[in-house]
Amino acid sequence: MKRTLMVLGASSAFALATTAHAQSSVTLYGLIDAGLTYTNNQSGSSNFQETSGAVNGSRFGLRGSEDLGGGLKAIFVLENGFNIANGKLGQNGLEFGRQAFVGLSSEQYGAVTLGRQYDSVVDYLAPLSLTGTGYGGTQAAHPFDNDNLDNSFRINNSIKYASVNYGGLKFGGLYGFSNSAGNFATNRAYSMGASYNYGPFNFAAGYLQLNNSGTDLNSGGAVTNDVTFTSGVQRTWGAGANYTFANATVGLVFTQSIIGNLTGIGASASGTSNGLSFVNNSARFSNYELNGRYNLTPAVSVSAAYTFTDSRIDGVAPKWNQLTLQTDYALSKRTDVYLQGVYQHVSDTGDSGIHAVINGLSMSSSNEQVAVTAGIRVRF
């Protein structure tokens, strides 16, 4: 009898352990993007180099969830960025520089998460831009990634809400704390956004504000040394729409970034370094993007984007014209090869020292720059 009870007890414990294991999951995932890039002008010379993340930043991460019952889950993501060409950590050497958050997700009410996270412009609007997808990526970003559609920086100390899908409508918001006693508004951030899907039609909009971003006033705040602009305030907003018919998708995206008390455009997480500096000035970038993609076959796609950027910087009014073309061939569900070309021309720069600079590359010594990349992506 005792032996029977012991067997039954062990069986019950094993069943409970199996059930608990089935209710929890941890997934290792990642993406590796490596390529060879030819640039006609980088600091006055042509360059042929190996690049990492010309389209999508290389990364690996852990994603997990635990079923708490009643449609509620505990969730987390720890995501690392790295350079496949030299093995170095991305995002200025942070261990989990791309994302690091934990929170609760409800099937009925949405998710609340805390940590280092993407802002709402990245979450909702970027997927409608060629730079926010795998069809153009890093090098297709608007000048200096001024609107952060290519997520050059993330928001630290942030709490985020993301709704469930209400018949095609999704919305959310984020707040990044300054984490500084007596300086509540110094280096804080907040954003909000929404998207709507109705059959082949998609629409999205977003808003982001950074206070005292990239300054020395509070280095432990919401945005640190990967921010694009060193400034007193940055306000970015935008909207976009696309429409899919048959094998084609066409879209329009508009964004505007207004920067107050601009003191510098520094080296962002994308790798752009330009050495420009400004004294107590302001800037505005208005970006108009027309994009499209077409699936020739289930394995072959082509995509393109044209972006016109009208700006006001330090007393001059630079105007950028940028064209991105890409063709991609899927070798399998997880592996593809691509060929991408980007052309950028900037005019009306005066004596500002601004030249053409494709995102992720060093600045040209002239008003034009061309980059061609042949690469491979592997997902796991």
Automatic annotation (TrEMBL):
Residues 12-348 form the Porin domain. Pfam families: Porin_4. InterPro entries: Gram-neg_bact_OMP, Gram_neg_porin_domain, Porin_dom_sf, Porin_Gram-ve, Porin_Neis. It is a multi-pass membrane protein. Keywords: Cell outer membrane, Ion transport, Membrane, Porin, Signal, Transmembrane, Transmembrane beta strand, Transport. It comes from the Bacteria. It is found in: Cell outer membrane. CDD domains: gram_neg_porins (cd00342). Residues 1-22 form the signal peptide. PANTHER family: MAJOR OUTER MEMBRANE PROTEIN P.IA, PROTEIN YDDL-RELATED. Homotrimer. This is Porin.
